[in-house]
């Protein structure tokens, strides 16, 4: 029992006396954070974050430049190797496709609907394409550095220019443009 009393005395904390000095306390917020903080650690963490962001930005810039430097020649080589030939452009067939409305989206009001509408559009397109061929429409193909080709059909009867882009083994219809009559008259004189 005397051992128990001595053990109890050793485990109980002693109240601070006026003679024992206490450590100075720092003011804290309700969250338990110190008000004074450690300015050196905050400044160093901000500097480290800025340095990491700068290094990451430089790394991304180098990777982007490298990707561009590799992608441009590869894209050029791909376009050159898949550019359609001039002989592959069948002007009459392409003009028929445009005139019968194959290039129009499904919900377009001018797109022929149903069997009779499509058949009528085919007949009309064939007649117009043959009339354009007899009237002397001209076909002009412009080669752009061997990467792509632009085909232009000038239909003098309808006073319309039709444009196609030849790239990646296909001819894609771009647009039709109505040209004033005096432009065609000037073209004929030149």
Task: Report on this structure.
The protein has helices at residues 2-11, 39-82, 91-99, 114-135, 181-189, and strands spanning 138-144, 148-155, 160-167, 170-178. With 190 residues, the chain is α+β, with helices and mostly antiparallel strands. A four-stranded antiparallel sheet has the order 1-2-3-4. β3 (160-167) and β4 form a beta hairpin. The longest helix is centred in the N-terminal third of the chain and has 44 residues, at 39-82. The mean pLDDT is 82.
Name the descriptors.
alpha+beta; 190 residues; four-stranded antiparallel beta sheet; 49% helix; 4 strands; 5 helices
What's the layout of helices and strands?
Layout: H1 2-11, H2 39-82, H3 91-99, H4 114-135, E1 138-144, E2 148-155, E3 160-167, E4 170-178, H5 181-189
Antiparallel strand pairs: 1-2, 2-3, 3-4
Helix pairs in contact: 3-4
Summarize the structure.
This protein has 190 residues and is α+β, with helices and mostly antiparallel strands. Helices cover 49% and strands 17% of the residues.
């Amino acid at each position: 029992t005397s051992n128990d009393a001595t053990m109890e005395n050793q485990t109980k904390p002693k109240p601070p006396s006026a003679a024992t000095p206490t450590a100075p306390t720092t003011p804290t917020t309700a969250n338990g954070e110190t008000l004074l903080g450690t300015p050196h650690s905050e400044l160093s963490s901000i500097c480290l974050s800025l340095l990491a962001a700068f290094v990451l930005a430089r790394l991304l810039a180098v990777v982007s430049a490298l990707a561009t430097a590799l992608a441009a020649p590869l894209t050029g080589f791909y376009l050159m190797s898949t550019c359609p030939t001039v002989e592959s452009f069948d002007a009459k067939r392409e003009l028929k496709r445009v005139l019968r409305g194959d290039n129009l989206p499904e919900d377009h009001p001018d797109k022929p609907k149903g069997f009779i509408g499509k058949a009528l559009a085919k007949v009309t397109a064939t007649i117009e394409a043959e009339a354009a061929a007899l009237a002397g429409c001209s076909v002009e193909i412009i080669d752009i550095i061997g990467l792509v080709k632009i085909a232009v059909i000038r239909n003098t009867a309808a006073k319309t220019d039709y444009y196609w882009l030849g790239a990646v083994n296909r001819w894609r219809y771009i647009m039709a443009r109505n040209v004033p009559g005096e432009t065609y008259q000037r073209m004929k004189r030149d």
